[in-house]
Amino acid sequence: MSLGHRFRWSVLGATVAVLVVTVAPPSAVAAPAPPLYPVVGAGTRLLDHGAKLAGFVEPEWYEANIPFVDLPDQTIEDTYYYRWRTYKEALKYTGAADGWIVSEFLGPVGYSAPHGGIVAAAGHHVYEGRWLRDHRYLDDYLDYWLRGSGAGPKPATDQLNENTTDWAHQYSFWAADAMLARASVDGRFGFAVDRLPELEKQWATWSPQFDRELGLYWQVPVWDAMEYTASSYQSDDPYHGGEGFRPTLNAYQYGDAKAIASLLRMRGDRRQAKDYEDDANALRAAMESHLWDQDAQFYKHVMRDGNPGREQLEDREQIGFIPWYFHMAPTANSAAWAHLTDPAGFAAPFGPTTVERRSPWFMHDAQLGCCRWSGPSWPFATSQTLTALANLLADYPSQSYVDRDDYVGLLRGYAATQRKNGVPYVAEAHHPDEDRWLYDAAGHSEDYNHSTFNDLVLSGLLGIRPQQGERVRLAPLVPGDWSHFAVENVPYHGRNLSVAWDRDGTRYGKGAGLTVWIDGKRVHRQADLKPVELRVPTGRPQVLHTAVDDLVNVAGTGYPSATASYTWPADTPADAIDGQDFHLDVPTTRWTSYGSPNREDWLAVELGAAKPVSDLRLSFYDDGGGVRTPDRFAVEYRNAAGDWVSLPDQTRVPPAPERGRLNRVLVDPPVTTNALRVRPVRDDGGAVGITAFQSWR
After folding, report:
1. Helix 175-186 and helix 136-146: axis angle, to 10°?
2. Right CATH number for 3-37+545-696 from 1.10.1660.10, 2.60.120.260, 3.40.50.280, 3.90.79.10?
3. pLDDT tens string 253-278
4. Separation in Å, CA 155 to CA 101, 147, 160, 652
5. Residues 6 or more apart whose Cβ sits within 8 Å of residue 580
6. CA distances from 289 to 214, 284, 449, 588 (A)
7. In angstroms, rounded to a whole number, what is the distance separating the alpha carbons of residues 295 and 323?
8. 400, burial (CB in 10 Å: exposed 0-12, middle 13-18, buried 19+)
9. Region 436-443: what's the mean pLDDT?
10. DSSP line for 182-233
11. Could you tell me the sign of the dihedral formed by the alpha carbons of 503, 504, 510, 513, in that order?
């Protein structure tokens, strides 16, 4: 695949370099620095962004990328900004071939695809990341699963899914639906249409699991990312058993078929689009015939083996709400939602539960250890259920079973679940009735990126309903007693969309009622919160250039190779060039000199070949205690004679290191070298740390 389809930072040519700064950087005027972030452009300034980002590392990244919100509910708002921090942590640069991916765990796991990708939550990753202004992350990530290493072969083994032979089918995945949902926000439908061959292949590759007699796909619960469930417990293998016809994969395939049909129509291929629509309609009919339990008013699992009568299981599992995620369920089935708020159903203070309380399998073995989806509150499933509920409330005819107060209550409970020791935190699964995480392994579960939250705030609570044409639908689900809310500078179809509700006009000083701005210009005002559809002319997309980091080494073998004069035993020099940049104590991904007997230490990178260096970036670690931001740093490169010499013609941004800021060293003209070294120094001789050392070109 050409680099034109990959994403790297927009920068000038870069080479390996070592940082060592013992003198002030040159003050001579150099060429303008290449843009580090997307340009926000014209918009509103209703909110104090600095206050919202207080304490965040690299606040400029958030300023350039995220929609800002102001909410009366502090728990939801705090979780919103926390979840953008965790999403940024999950962005992992892998190298020139695959670019950026979105990781699930901060640390690697043995069953992941190349570079640590796991397809199970990829749909969630795309739905959440579609609201970022910099489209290159998801460009790369989607291509990773469709065209890159994530689409490559994998062993067909019991531990890696013996039923499939490529990484993109290791777990169930709603690829085309997520692709179209993303395009419906950024307006870049051409990117999605261009990938139709891969999306069709992704859809068709599930065919070995299609039962022509029933017209449904079968799946094993574990490959729905649900290891132990009420379904699998009723088989001879609680972990890998329970093969059956499930609402999950069938709904995903329905959603993907509908999305592919939409993209084909954009391409002008109406005949093939109708074929996919026919396939989707057939899946819907089969679901209604075989998985919908009319007496129980719910979609249920049907065992594949030993079940000649194709009887449904008795248990209602939370996966029964998934058809509404894809607008697959008919209006007549809305009674299913009564079980969501039923105390004997899925309702829980920290819920919803993954199986209803009526089930004899509720909380079966749940406290024996991960991962048992027999009752615990699971962010993955909560995300799907809340998305489905928002669709029901915003897009279906009104019904009497659930309302916006139920949505807000569930979202508030979901936000309250994402806490530990009183601060925002998300792990793998939570006790449904007690304020504690059940599955939270140290060095593994921290900031677990296996769900959405911000998409639920933006598309559900605040009601920004993305559309395929030059329009947007607004259908807020906020409580009727909210006096205000605002969402500012949402990157939508190449424009900046802002929406504010100010009941009496005193909160934002822009007038009473609901006000909408496009690129900072008011285009609509109304006195109430009734749904409204507005025209949004498509803007011109920013040109965000491809760039490559020559220092990254995700595998940790070969070149580039990092060494240091001293390293604290819990850290490694290689962690500074592993493609990740997060600032947590556990797990770690950094080099530090903590405990060093030296007054000054260095970190060096051997490139393995001569590369041009023009744009170096350093992210310093600062724990507020023993490891602090350096007072200064030097950057050196190895010259032709083999000597370390200061990197010439530097421009520093910022001029001196600042806590929480990304440090950029621009070199003009570029220098070619095969090794770089950085020497960060504290005046008191204390320890320093680096979480990311990069050289972009």
Report:
1. 160
2. 2.60.120.260
3. 999 999 999 999 999 999 999 999 99
4. 21, 18, 7, 47
5. 89, 92, 93, 103, 106, 589, 691, 692
6. 9, 9, 35, 51
7. 18
8. exposed
9. 96
10. HHHHH--HHHHHHTHHHHHHHHHTTGGGEETTTTEEEE-GGGGT-SEEHHHH
11. positive
Query: Domain 70-458 has what CATH class?
Result: mainly alpha
Structure tokens at 485: 């809310």
Q: Which amino acid is at 286?
A: A
Write out the two tokens for 202.
């992704």
Cβ atoms 465, 457 nearer than 8 A: no
Domain with CATH 1.50.10.10 in the chain: 70-458
Handedness of CA 139, 144, 145, 151 (dihedral sign): positive
Tokens representing 178 are 């997520």
How many other C-beta atoms lie within 10 A of the C-beta of residue 272?
Answer: 15
Q: What is the largest CA-CA distance in the chain?
A: 82
- What is the model's pTM? 0.95
Residue 166 — very low, low, confident or very high, per pLDDT cuts 50/70/90? very high
Residue 518 clears pLDDT 50, i.e. is over it? yes
Q: Tokens 């990092």 label which residue?
A: 562
CA distances 392 to 301, 333, 348, 534, 694, Å, are 22, 11, 21, 21, 46
For 287-340, what is each residue's pLDDT tens digit? 999 999 999 999 999 999 999 999 999 999 999 999 999 999 999 999 999 999
Question: Given a cut of 70, is residue 206 above it in pLDDT?
Answer: yes
Task: Answer yes or no: is pLDDT of 14 > 80.
Answer: no
E strands, 594-688, in order: 603-620, 632-638, 644-646, 650-653, 663-681
Task: Tell me the one-letter amino acid at 587.
Answer: P
Which residue has tokens 């609509």? Answer: 524
- Residue 91 φ then ψ, to 5°: -75, 120
Instruction: Quote the CA–CA distance of 407 and 477 in Å, as a whole number.
Output: 7
